[in-house]
Amino acid sequence: RMRVLACVRFAAHKGLGQVRLASSSSQKKYVDLREDRGIYTTDPINYNEAKFDKILIANRGEIACRVIKTARAMGIKTVAVHSDVDSNSLHVRLADEAVCVGPAPTSQSYLRVDKILQAVKDTGAQAVHPGYGFLSENTHFAADLEKIGVKFVGPNSKAILDMGDKINSKKIAAAAKVNMIPGFDGEIADEDMCVKVANDIGYPVMIKASAGGGGKGMRIAWNDKEAREGYSLSKQEAKSSFGDDRMLVEKFIDNPRHIEMQVLCDKHGNSLWLNERECSIQRRNQKVIEEAPSSFVTPEMRRAMGEQSVQLARAVGYDSAGTVEFLVDGKRNFYFLEMNTRLQVEHPITESITGIDIVQQMLRVSYGHKLNLTQEQVPLQGWAFESRVYAEDPYKGFGLPSVGRLSRYVEPNHIEGVRCDSGIREGSEISIYYDPLICKLVSHGKDRPQALARMRDALDGYVIRGVTHNIPLLRDICQEQRFNEGRITTKYLPEVYPEGFMGAQLNVDEQDKVLAMAAALNARKIARSKQFKNQKRQRTTYVDPYQMTFKFVAELPAEEGQGKAVAVEVKFDKGDDKEARVTLNGKTIAISGDMNLAQPIIDLKADGKALTTQIVGKKAGEITVVYKGTNFKVKVLPEHAIEYIKHMKPKAKVDLSSVVLSPMPGAIKSVAVKVGDMVSEGQQLIVIEAMKMQNGLHAGKTGKVKSVTVKEGQTVDEGELLVELE
Question: Is 540's pLDDT higher than 60?
């Protein structure tokens, strides 16, 4: 037994995916390490098949870790590249070798083709996997690799060129008889042309970068003013993100669904479609929650979308994994949007419902192997969701970036059917230089309700401290009625949250449950502090705190839209610190479970019903608990203290119309005003960039500029004063 364990550990250290053990009966036994390695496939790896010896991953974060895991399972050595601030990142630690390619800014590191090519030569890598973003759709990079005899783990450079150019891709798609959106067939030269074309097509229009993707370099315009501003901002974003600022304009289909089809092709003319993904929950054209399959797609529609996707792939000689994106109207008409010639962010949910490791297939195909399955062998097994957990503040425009260090980090891997694709760990730093993605949280189940229930449990059991994150929004979406019924479009967020996201809204019973839970935990904290451990004391001088009755006044603060202060009484049953009875508002709620205040996750029951919470803050008179993903600061005070609070003056509110504050940490891209200038309400004053996204900041009223505290290129913190008006 010890020999078997030693063998398995050695194989895991070497990155092997499977170990053959010979027994005395000459039978072959296999220990599969793929589950431990994080590989998601039901198709066994053929270790006798020829493969690369070493590959380089030209990316960072979770996608670099994802590629490394599959490569190691296949017995392929890996090389990581990194910027100087990423030198201690998880993907660097997982790889067999690592090469620093420059300082933190992407333009000086991850986008430096010359440095990455030099790293390829220095390490002897036979292939490069680009992941997504960065150089993944850079046709020059792919061509440069071909010139030095190194494989690009992706499509050929011609296919990238044809599909990466949104203008040219439309012409090819139309010729391949793929359903098309009405639009202008050509490049938009300037703002005036943008306005003219928009008026010819008819508002609303979508302004987007020809080389764009991932929601960057895209704006929706409903009038001439928005068209001019959207063109300018999108063009700047496109140049910063892709090095290509060509723009196009097309008709914006109002209230559509965003549904995409995963395709997989080899170099021998074989092409497959691996079912669809629904990506309609978006903010700023970036996906928030995806699912596979779509509840809106019928089997006939699925086949039609798949066949058109494969037609397009064949038309451009596609030979890797790719995604064809469609807009779908309410009558199930679908229109070609674009083709992403790379591994898609949300590929894990396709892997979950098909059992096909897409990264493994990309590596096989790039080496020259044929696809090892046919269209008829592609299954559709169950349902899967992916929640993109970001370091963002969901209360600001559904998510503005946040920065900081992860002081506590626990992934919910203990929940059945849950997969966490992340590139960080406790202690990792979320900086302004890169995408704020923390993790791609994936749940899989036999059907949609089970997969969704597992996602809710996973979000409740996810511990993130040190940065603001968007779990409150994700958790609220997962319990919202429209989402549960599958009635979603790309307008879902502004329609469901017209005033913006304001946290979970509780009914009366839920308010009482939160108050009871907070009061019980607070009583547990006080009782623990009154205990004397390992001391000999006279019983006559000792009172067991768990035999006491705790009386509080509890309140959910008014700014969270909840009720007023209520009297609460807490008693522990028979001196047991795991059983409490809480009386409030004329009813008694039984709170039971391990109330260990040191645990990051506390599993309780309220009147017998399961309740998962976290304590994210404790101070005198206040305890902050998590319920349904949202933090609730509950005041739990002695009865007499509430009278004193009534006499405390509230903080004076700042006149935000006279100032422009930074909504997030970032870098100032441009300053359009100076001291003494007259500005009108709504005029753009500052453009700030964070995590490769640009945001225009506008004047809240008409007036004269009193002060400008920043200049172009300066980095600022959230809440910092940028411009002040008289």
Answer: no
State the average pLDDT over residues 223-249: 88
Sign of CA dihedral 125, 128, 131, 133: positive
Cis status of the peptide bond prior to 293, with omega within 30 of 0: yes
Collapse the DSSP code of 532 into the 3-class scheme (helix H, G, I; strand E, B; otherwise coil) and give the result: coil
The CA distance from 619 to 636, in Å, is 10
Q: Which residue has 């790896």 as its token pair?
A: 45
The contacts of residue 44 (CB under 8 Å, 6+ apart) are 18
168-216 pLDDT tens trace: 898 899 999 999 987 787 889 999 999 999 998 889 899 988 876 666 7
Best CA proximity match to 435, nearest among 87, 690, 93: 690
Report, as residue numbers or ranges, the catalytic residues. 342
Which parts of 32-185 fold into alpha helices (H)?
Answer: 34-37, 61-73, 90-94, 113-123, 139-147, 157-164, 166-175
Pairing type for strands 383-390 and 286-292 reads: antiparallel
Cα distances (Å, whole numbers) of residue 479 to 158, 449, 464, 501, 659 = 45, 11, 21, 14, 37
Q: Within 13 Å and on the Cβ side, how many CA atoms surround 680?
A: 1
Summarize the confidence of residues 55-67 as an average pLDDT: 97
Nearest-CA neighbor of 477 among 250, 291, 309?
Answer: 291
pLDDT tens digits along 372-389: 999 999 999 999 999 999
Is residue 422 within 8 Å of residue 65, measured between CB atoms?
Answer: yes
Tokens of 353: 């419902």
Cα 715 from Cα 666, distance rounded (Å):
6
> 475 with 460: CB under 8 angstroms?
yes
Q: How far apart are CA 341 and CA 567, in angstroms?
A: 61
In percent, how much of the chain has pLDDT > 90? 63
Q: Is the pLDDT of residue 24 over 60?
A: no
Q: Would you tell me how many other CB atoms lie within 10 Å of the CB of residue 474?
A: 25
Q: Is residue 45 a contact partner of residue 18, using CB atoms and an 8 Å limit?
A: yes
- Indicate the burial class of 536 (C-beta count within 10 angstroms; 0-12, 13-18, 19 or more): exposed
Q: Which residue is associated with the tokens 């003056």? A: 649
* Cβ partners under 8 Å of residue 643, min gap 6: none
674, burial (CB in 10 Å: exposed 0-12, middle 13-18, buried 19+): exposed
Residue 587 backbone dihedrals phi, psi, to 5 degrees: -135, 160
- DSSP string computed for 23-54: -TT--EEEEE-HHHHT---SSPP-TTS---SE
| Length of the chain measured in residues | 726
Average pLDDT rounded to a whole number, residues 675-692: 85
The pLDDT tens digits for 272-320 are 999 999 999 998 888 999 999 999 999 999 999 999 999 999 999 999 9
